[in-house]
Amino acid sequence: MTAGTESSTRWPPIPKNVRALAVPPNLVDYDETCAAFTWDEARHALSGLPGNRGLNIAYEAVDRHAAGARARHEALRFVRGDGTTHSLTYAQLAEQTGRFASVLRGLGIGRGDRVFSLLGRVPALYIAVLGTFKNASVFCPLFSAFGPEPVRQRLQLGGGRALVTTRALYRKKVAPIRDRLPDLRYVFLVDADGHPEPDTLDLAALLLEAPPYGEIAATQGEDMALLHFTSGTTGTPKGAVHVHDAVTAHYATGRFALDLHQDDVYWCTADPGWVTGTSYGIIAPLAHGVTAIVDEEELDADRWYRVLAEQRVTVWYTAPTALRMLMKAGADRAAGHDLTALRFVASVGEPLNPEVVMWGQEAFGQPIHDNWWQTETGGIMIANYAATPIRPGSMGRPLPGVEAALVARDELGAPVMRGGEVVLVTEPDALGELALRPGWPSMFRGYLGEEERYRRAFVGGWYLSGDLARRDSDGYYWFVGRGDDVIKSSGHLIGPFEVESSLMEHEAVAEAGVIGIPDPVAGEVVKAFVELKPGWEPSEALRLDIIGFARKRLGPAVAPRELDFTASLPKTRSGKILRRLLKARELGLPEGDTSTVEVPR
Ligand code: ATP
Ligand code: MG
């Protein structure tokens, strides 16, 4: 049982007029496309390594374009802090990544060896990722703001043999832990400028000397390509293993869920330290041969509007936390910028409040398309599409080739089994754990060093995501909450998202995080932490007003019983509200793994 179906009923669906869209969408008829789709067929959109030597992400993303008509097309366009840009064409990227592969090979770094990065969004990062694939080595991008301990843990778990970083990051974060990392043989500095630190190498000098075109090593679809750590929202981050065949899913989902077309100028705001920034900040756009924008700076409302306008971005993939931040700054901030090039906006990472979807209409002249996936799924699994109506608050419907279901859970949260099979929830709007039928190409192939945990993620032929959702009678999925976050109050199961979205509809509320706190009568009651919009001051009257507002919308059983104002909600560095931290702080419990916690600027 869930509380209410508020979000599904209050907001009217946003229809789409396919004929009025500036560019004909790749997916027009959802049911027809799903019925016709197979992953084998999807592989035909890729080239495969010349001479039938297998499949390699770097060839699909770079060299096949460099060898053809798109050689001089801009592959990556970097926007510097001062707004100026510098670009790499597909041909230049092919050459640079070839040189990087040659450097690795020259040092004896080979097949399956792990190459890490600790870098901001600079060209060397992109060259290193793709060059590593060319050498059949495995890449693991780390977020540059990690402290020394999270860096050490991940390098150690991943058995990092090489690391690409900057002088400043090396001095601050790697030098102090280097002697505890015996596997780490080579550290490349991207800015050594002829003077590397002791025990490091000058990457620019090595690239110059390396033979310009290293041949791409033969890799097969099932060969490991990437190691990605999860966001650490629910606990210690897990290392998810991905293979070269993931590019099949990146290409297909780029086509259907992001509606990529060859002439697009596409901007994914995620950092490659998180899976979105690699799958959709590097692989998907390049596999499509489009121009990908990379902003070297951090989130700032005016700057982002400038980048959208000045770079003439056509397709934009971002996150709810960033959108809520822009919303907090006010839609009028968008007004002075020419956003007419923008034709498709998508969001991932957290539930997207209906309020934000509607605001998109005001700020960008179009709704925002929510989609759902995880580090483990490697690519988008459930999405709203360019051509299909949006139901604000819903994540949309499964991608072609993706079979999703809801698995019934017992009182303790375990899947309900009957005769060796999991019991699926089939009635509309009922709650279940979101599950996927294994077989999509970007599925993770392991949690590094945690075989048992990986095994436990699959039950009765389904991958269990750990997220709870509902599905309406038309097949749209509605996120309820993470299994760990749902609140059990007087027999109701309350999803924090529904409560947070209602709070956000109050004129004073910029963002909200909701948890359950123990209550002797109800078991748990709802407590909200609320960040106010500029111009609003915390007061007892406002507190009562917001609670009253939520009670009217949600009813007394679901509305927050308690509400605190906060200057900023704790978040992961990838922008997710850390409810487990709100709860630990509220209850005076240990905070657990804090390696990915964003430190407020
Ligand atoms: P950890 O697994 O370490 O706790 P995490 O789950 O946040 O961290 P990610 O793999 O980066 O790590 O995030 C995936 C999760 O993000 C999903 O399982 C889901 O809970 C949430 N999420 C992603 N997209 C959406 C969305 N569109 N709506 C709701 N939730 C989403
Ligand atoms: Mg997770």
UniProtKB/TrEMBL annotation:
Record EC number: 6.2.1.1
The AMP-binding enzyme C-terminal domain, residue ranges: 498-576
Keyword hit for Acetylation: yes
Source species, domain of life: Bacteria
Keywords, alphabetical: Acetylation, ATP-binding, Ligase, Nucleotide-binding
Matches recorded under InterPro entries: AMP-bd_C (IPR025110), AMP-bd_C_sf (IPR045851), AMP-binding_CS (IPR020845), AMP-dep_synth/lig_dom (IPR000873), ANL_N_sf (IPR042099)
GO cellular component: cytosol
Keyword presence, ATP-binding: yes
Domain AMP-dependent synthetase/ligase intervals: 66-448
GO BP of this protein: acetyl-CoA biosynthetic process
Gene Ontology MF, one: acetate-CoA ligase activity
PANTHER family in alphabetical order: ACETYL-COENZYME A SYNTHETASE (PTHR24095), ACETYL-COENZYME A SYNTHETASE 1 (PTHR24095:SF14)
NCBIfam families, A to Z: PRK04319.1
Name listed for the protein in its UniProt record: acetate--CoA ligase
